[in-house]
Amino acid sequence: MKTASAPELRAFMSVALRRQGVVGAIAPSSPALARALTAVVPTRGTPVVVELGPGTGPISEAIRERLAPGSRQLAVEIEPDLAAHLRRTKPWMETIQGDAADLGALLAGAGVERVDAVVSTLPWSLFPGERQERILGEVGRALAPWGAFTTVTYLHAVPLAGARALRRRLRSVFDEVLTTGPVWRNLPPGMAYVCRRPVTRV
Q1: Got the DSSP string for the chain?
Q2: pLDDT tens digits for 158-183?
């Protein structure tokens, strides 16, 4: 998988500098982190896969590499400039400009009832607890019973209270929460949470 191009870096930095409450990373995700996050994407059949917070699309490319023809790949991006960038540079992907907290409604508008995998690089540390719970609840309801959800955390944040609270919320929504990594070849080093079997109470 290729690394971020100069136009992608410019698009990322333009939004990151203007909207620090929207972009939580200091650089686009590396190919190594992308591989860790997308390992749950099915390589057979025609699954529906949703990406939350794609930014300039480095994870999108990794998802595309795993999908067979006939699959659906959707991306939900809240920042209008980044959504426009994705539509220009990745026309093969269905980019939806909207809020992940409204995931169910956004998917319904796209004619999607259930998804096989959700991959996220959302900046959880920037969200209050209530917003985290709402997004995770939306993910749990959108996933098929056999589906999987992956999201990123950064190594330096793992011991912090906010990261511990996120793990508790993940365990309240999913029956299984595993941690993979660390991925040292990322800035900053990251880890992936792999979550399966959404519980019915969400």
Answers
A1: -PPPPHHHHHHHHHHHHH-TTT---SSPPPHHHHHHHGGGS-SSS--EEEEE--TTSHHHHHHHHHPPTT-EEEEEE--HHHHHHHHHH-TTSEEEES-GGGHHHHHHHTT-S-EEEEEE---GGGS-HHHHHHHHHHHHHHEEEEEEEEEEEEGGGTTSHHHHHHHHHHHHHEEEEEEEEEE-SSSS-EEEEEEEEE-TT-
A2: 888 989 999 999 999 999 999 987 98
- Residue 184 is predicted with a pLDDT of 87
CA dihedral (37, 42, 48, 52) in degrees, to 10, reads 0
Whether residue 24 is predicted with pLDDT greater than 50 in this model: the reply is no
Residue 50 to residue 52: CA distance in whole angstroms: 7
